[in-house]
């Protein structure tokens, strides 16, 4: 396996997914705006997404991948596949029961997750209905995630990385073709989410079969391996999913604010998710199975090098992205969303949240890059302690800051807690001797920051120079934003080369090395 190639494969498909996600969100903004129907749908969407992050992409992946990769390395393919089949069977049974229970209890569950909606019965009832439609997505996507963990451990990243594309395609299809036959566009979108879960599961299972692996459904048994899996997964459900938990807390608290607050935070987070998904998810997905195999093989040098290169790659991309989003928040939001039911005042309110979220972007991605350092060593408890502390800070600060700053205060609290989480993870790994920053990383990070600051200053100057175009027609605004983004990329790339933050030759040679040489 090759770390850079794996990251770029996952990141490339994630980028495609995020682009389609923007198309999807533009259609949603035009159809729903930022009113009560949009708020109801976004709560219904976030609810299964929270558990998706926890069960599928968070807890289960973090616990399953090291165990599967370790079995693959130590015992061979057949015992590893048998373990995966047993895990698949137990997961299917447990989640089916969980989904049924939540469906029946949905009105009471949403008393907790959207308490601010109780004063608006129509809005609350719509949220309950939409959440019941979307929630089965959790079952399908969690099973899909297990299959993705198997494929990733085998070094097959492409098929799993492409699955989020299918979600966006299904939702775009729902709003374009199903909405005219539904009570509202929100109903069509909710059905699109559940339908996407089925499509993703079929897609990835087909990819697994092409690898010569058929996961049959044996009678569920709580073997020692399965007990170990779930014992490790439970604490990670808090630790690995802290970002989503924080966003859910944001939603709960935002439901107490004026109508539209949930939508402002949602749209701002969607833009912030582009670099977060492309870099953070890619790094975390590619790094965990590699670190697991290095640690299991006793190759500490390779593990340290992989960790350092992942941090270097993460900061090289997220620092300039964060500053660019901070500077260009208003033109980005107006170009993407300001049309149809989404007014200019909505765009400005969303842009304020984006400027704050952008400051936390490096922290969000660093958590993705640092957490595998614990999970690969089968330590799922320490990140829980850290994440719970960060979550408490988020709640307290949200309640304090929502008064004077409304939804922007909630974004501030999320950013502060994310930085607390990232710094604490790094400090603990460093104290254990499991994170030793090498000379190359220590030398290049300050140069990356310097190149990014130069880019941000020039972007700000460019915005001032192009004020008329940025306030003009849609064509003028799109053209001006494209020039600013393209110019910013060119300036940062040139600055990174001149200052030595990155070298084209280094990246080329990195792509040709195996992970043991990284």
How is this structure best described in words?
Helices cover about 85% and strands about 0% of the residues. With about 525 residues, it is mostly helical. The C terminus is likely disordered. It is globular. The chain has 19 helices and no strands. The protein has one domain.
The DSSP helix count reads: 19
Mean residue pLDDT: 79
Please indicate the percent range of residues in DSSP E strands (runs of 2 or more): under 5%
Number of domains: 1
Low-pLDDT windows of residues: 509-518
Sketch the major β-sheet.
none
Whole-Å distance between the termini?
Answer: 11 Å
Share of residues in helices: over 70%
* Rg (C-alpha, Å): 22 Å
Order of helices and strands: HHHHHHHHHHHHHHHHHHH
Task: Supply database-style keywords.
mainly alpha; 518 residues; 19 helices
